[in-house]
Every structure is written in C-alpha cells, then in structure tokens.
Amino acid sequence: MRSIPPATNAHYAELRSLGRSASNRRKAGRFLVEGPVLVDELMASPIEVSYLVGSAELLEVHAASGVDLFDAHLGKFRDSMSTQSPQPLAAVANIPEAAPLTAGGALALVEMSDPGNAGTMIRTAEAAGMSGVVFVGECVDTWNPKLVRASAGAVFRQPISRVSEDELFNAAAGPVLATVIDAGQSYLDAALTDAVLCMGNEAHGLPQSFVDRCSGSITIPLAGPTESLNVAAAAAVLVFAALEQRRSSTLAAEQATRQ
Q: pLDDT tens for residues 209-218?
C-alpha cells in the first residue's frame, strides 16, 4: 500500500460543493460519486477520475490505479456528504462531454425533473440495450448525486445527450413517438425498434405542442382502475418491448439466412 496523505479542508469543501449544487458542478466541471460500489463502477468506466477520498481500507482497493488518494477524517467526511450515513469512500470525477444524439432506438426524457426517476430510467435503458438516453429541454442535472445512485452506475456508461426540443426533431433519424396516457396507439402494435421513445414530466406529461410534433403517439393499455403508471415504470415497459422487437427481427433475419 502506497503512502496516502490526509484529505485537506479544500477536499472536504469540494465534496460538499459538488454534492449540493448543479451550478457548482457545472462551474467546476466535476461531479461527486459516493460509496464503494459506485466508485468501483466509475473506476471501471472511461470517465476521468480526479481523486478519491475515504478510509484507508477502502482506498487500498484502488492503490494501483494511479488516481490520487486521500485519507479521510471520518467526521469531516460525513459532514461533507449528501447522504445521512455515507460509506467512507467518495470520488471526484471530471464531467464528460455530452454524447451526440443517437440515430434511433433511444429513450428521451422531456422536461424530467426528478433525479430518482431519471436515474432509474437510465439504468433501465441500458438494461434494455437502448442506444442512448436523451434529455430534452430543462431536465435534472445528469450528475445529480441522487440520479447517479439511482442509475446504479449506468450513467457512467450509457450515452447521454442533452438537446433542445427543436434539436431533437431536427436531428432524429427515426420516428419520434410520444407516450400518452390514452388515445395513442397501443405500444404492442407500434414499431418501436428504431424509435425515439419520449417520456414526459412526472407531473404534467408531454405538452400537447410536443405531442403534435411527434411521428405518432403510443399508450400502455391498463387492465385495472389505476389512471397511469409511474413514468419510470412506463419507460421500462416500452424499452423492453423495443428490445423484444429487435430480438424478433434478428431471429427472423437469421432464420431467413438459413433457409
């Protein structure tokens, strides 16, 4: 184990600053990752890590990484974190450039404000093999600590774009489909494979003006009296339906080749 210097007050101040303010993150060009599991995910990703702060035991895992390590005073560390009972390891990483808008097969979050929902949807999009996630308009900060935690590390790997509404419609190569509570085509009958699947704000859904610009609208038919699904649950239904369509297309192509 290499010699590890103690964390300074400047380190704790930066941890506190990055964890509490999107404007601070944008100004610094850095973000905070908390806990050994997420730090492991970060360290395995292409994102550039500036330094780690934590207990000697948890830092030892990353001793050969070449990243700067700083031994934490546990009391000061806890006071700097955004969670109530943090595990004693955190990373400060450089914010990567936003990914370009993907050609199709993407999940679009329109005016999405809740970091928990957004992070869950990024994680689900990755699990379903979507080509990317698109934040449209005024959305939650990509590097909000709650979003990072809810994504379970997917935010480090999944291509994420940030565009305006006009940029989305001008650049999208495939169909752009609006998800609406009712009056849309059943998602079971819609062509989802190469579509940009658009989910609206948690409280208000998609504005009608946005829906009117889309190639079409889709609905998830519900069997019970529940009015609607949570937006993250609805996204999961749609992206896995798109995955099933892609798998079916691949299987059909393979069968045609063998004949």
A: 999 999 999 9
pLDDT in tens, 79-121: 998 777 788 999 999 999 988 887 778 999 999 999 999 999 9
For residue 185, the SS3 value is strand
Tell me the C-alpha distance between 206 and 228, whole Å.
14
9-94: CATH number: 3.30.1330.30
* SS3 letters across 105-174: CEEEEECCCCHHHHHHHHHHHHHCCCCEEEEECCCCCCCCHHHHHHHCCHHHCCCEEEECHHHHHHHCCC
- For residue 159, give the nearest of 103, 112, 116 by alpha carbon: 103
For the domain made up of 106-258, the CATH class stated in words is alpha beta
